[in-house]
Amino acid sequence: MSSKPRARSSTVRFDDILRVAKKVAKTHTPRVAVAGAHYPIVLDVLCEAARQGFAAPLLYGDEAKIRQIARKLRLSLEGSEIIDVSDPVSASRQAAEAARTGEADALMKGNVKTATIMKAALDDEVGIKTERLLSHVALFEVDATKRVMFMADGGIVIAPDLAQKVEITKNAIQVARSLGVKTPKVAILSCLELVNPKIESTVDAAIISKMAERGQIKGAIVDGPLAFDNAVSAEAAKMKGIKSPVAGQADILIVGHADVGNVFYKTLTYFLGKQARTAGVIVGGKVPMIVVSRADTFDARLNSIAVACVLSRG
Predict the structure, then answer these.
(1) Residues 220-262 pLDDT 10s
(2) Cβ-count burial of 224 within 10 angstroms (0-12 exposed, 13-18 middle, 19+ buried)?
(3) Could you tell me if 223 and 1 are in contact, meaning their C-beta atoms sit under 8 angstroms apart?
(4) C-beta separation of 267 from 247 below 8 A
(5) Beta strand residue intervals within 4-97, DSSP E
(6) What value, to the nearest 5°, has the Cα angle with vertex 82 and ends 81 and 87?
(7) pLDDT digits (tens, 9 = 90+) for 98-113
């Protein structure tokens, strides 16, 4: 690990992302294709994004139900386009195809199963798949840090191998840089900070760190293995004698398994509540994709749409 500490990277907050999303929309309002828009919280958040002016919803769903929900919640559908399709498979495929052909700038899961929309997204004929790896990047802002941090992968690549971890890292770096973190600091996490040949995650982390040092991963400062405490706490790193340009200053946390990322994200959501602002986006496809949990809050959904809209500008 490097012995020379570096200054903190540029930072970004969710309010900054929302401002950029609105700025982006002044030249082109990103179109968000939603599969299964006939669901109250989904329609509510999309109408709010449209009201704030940073998204133009393409609503794929049961038109009668969409209009009924809008009347009940007193939502304006101005700026939205409704495509009447009640079957979830057809809705997912049509929304994915709109994203593939450029009719839409982002793809979003509504009232359809995750497996259904992911199958459409990965379909060779209608999907958004490219040569890149699709991976999930979670964003979170907590009172302790007062800045947005990033975590990957929390749910798409279940047990990534070394090559996939490299692609997950590259995807997360691209997201952070696109949102305003000029040179993100990336911590490749494990259960400890020393390389142990018996613990695969420590070996992978050391290899990825060396790859970044040799220029195979660009645009960020990467170090690992680092345990979680060493990655986010300068005091913990100092107590353990860790000298690293990333320790205590990480912007991006790369986890080794989806179980870890999923538990981490939901721990923030349920233990910190309103003290944690969150979002999530799937990247690596032709367009960013929003696949939120049914339990995600209104704000998390709105933040996710804003993130996707900013990323959609390329």
Answers:
(1) 999 999 999 999 999 999 999 999 999 999 999 999 999 999 9
(2) buried
(3) yes
(4) no
(5) 31-35, 56-61, 81-84
(6) 145
(7) 999 999 999 999 999 9
Nearest to 234 by CA among 172, 165, 185: 185
The domain defined by 135-264 folds into Isopropylmalate Dehydrogenase (3.40.718)
Instruction: Find out whether 81 and 72 touch, Cβ atoms under 8 Å.
Output: no
Type of residue found at 201: S
Task: Give the pTM.
Answer: 0.93
The residue written with tokens 């997360």 in the block is 172
User: Please, are residues 44 and 73 in contact by the beta-carbon 8 Å criterion?
Assistant: yes
Q: Give the total residue count for the chain.
A: 314
Contact 176, 252 (CB under 8 A): yes
The amino acid occupying position 110 is: G
Look up the CATH architecture of domain 25-130+286-311.
3-Layer(aba) Sandwich (3.40)
